[in-house]
Amino acid sequence: MCFDADVVYHLFIARGEEFENVDLKKSFEFETRKAGWRVSKWESGGHVFVLTAKASQENLESMLAEYTP
Question: Is 26 within 8 Å of 9 (Cβ atoms)?
Answer without folding.
Answer: no
